[in-house]
Amino acid sequence: GDTSSGLEKLLLLVKDDPNRARGLLAATSHISRLDVYDASFRVVGERIITPGAFVQLTFKVRQVQLLSGSPARKEQTPEEVSAEAAADAAFLESKAEVEDIPSYQPQWAHAPYWPANRKASWWCVVGDLKTQKIFVPPFKFTDVPWSNPEAHPNRDYRTYKLQFQAPQQVGTYTLHITFVSDTFVGEDQSVYMTLQVDDISSLGADEQMIEDDISEPEEDTLAGQMAAMRGGKVKKSPYHGSDDEESTTDGDNDSDSDSSDSD
User: Are 144 and 159 in contact (CB under 8 A)?
Assistant: First the structure.
């Protein structure tokens, strides 16, 4: 592939110009490509995706050296698998779009002609192959850690997520997820994923009640505003009083006014 042809050219250069080859090797150690460790569609607290549900696209990515292959995956113990699943669940239920890594230190891209230090960034673009349309608005992300299996043998990647509303129609959707680099030319990555939308009747009665509650976002959130524009149901924001409270307040004000008038 491209990596092997690059290595062949570098080996030829080592023979012809060793000094230049050493400079190129030093530069390539700071040039990365994105490695997609995993990606999935999930709905918080649900085992299936139903029409109109709010879906989380989560993806785990890391940077690897341009001329190296993807690091081999270490076989995990049951305890390590359980710990990773717990970390994934906690991040999925949080409001953060980027997983917090306390030990992360900013890493700069190799950009010798850029006027300042530059972080490598990517755009996540989700498209529908059948309709040839953008399925989810592009999402920009950065601060992707370099793979370091020795320092982080079980989790040398970072998890990101973005939320969107599932289609209203039951069916199977083949989506093309493209990660477009805004730093390294030609280092885009793509994966194909299947979004399966099932009818709510596939859930039990108890699960359907939970699904209805999950599918109604709060009115103050972006998801709630999008749902309201589509004519969907939204939850009353906890920051606003209920209609009953407003009616009671209005009633009190009217009583006060009447009292003042009688005085």
Answer: no
H/E segment holding residue 243: helix 243-262
Model confidence at 187, pLDDT cuts 50, 70, 90, reads confident
Q: What percent of the chain has pLDDT over 90?
A: 32
Q: Please state the rounded mean pLDDT for residues 220-235.
A: 58
DSSP string of 184-208, one letter each residue:
STT--EEEEEEEEE--GGGS-HHHH
Q: Evaluate whether 204 touches 262 at the Cβ level (below 8 Å).
A: no
Beta bridge partner(s), residue 162? 57
d(CA 7, CA 26): 14
Compute, in degrees rounded to 10, the torsion defined by CA atoms 56, 132, 37, 49: 30
Contact 32, 66 (CB under 8 A): yes
CA distances, 102 to each of 39, 99, 105, 121, 158 (Å): 22, 10, 9, 20, 11
Which carries the bigger pLDDT value, residue 144 or residue 71? 144
In whole angstroms, give the CA distance from residue 123 to residue 106.
19
Q: How far is CA 93 from CA 44, 55, 213, in A?
A: 7, 12, 15
Q: Which of 42-46, 94-98, 164-168, 194-198 has the lowest mean pLDDT?
A: 42-46
**Is 257 exposed, middle or buried (CB count within 10 Å of its CB: 0-12, 13-18, 19+)?**
exposed
Neighbours of 33 (CB within 10 A): 20
Indicate yes or no: pTM above 0.85: no
CA 113 to chain CA centroid, nearest Å: 31
181 pairs with which residues across the strands? Answer: 122
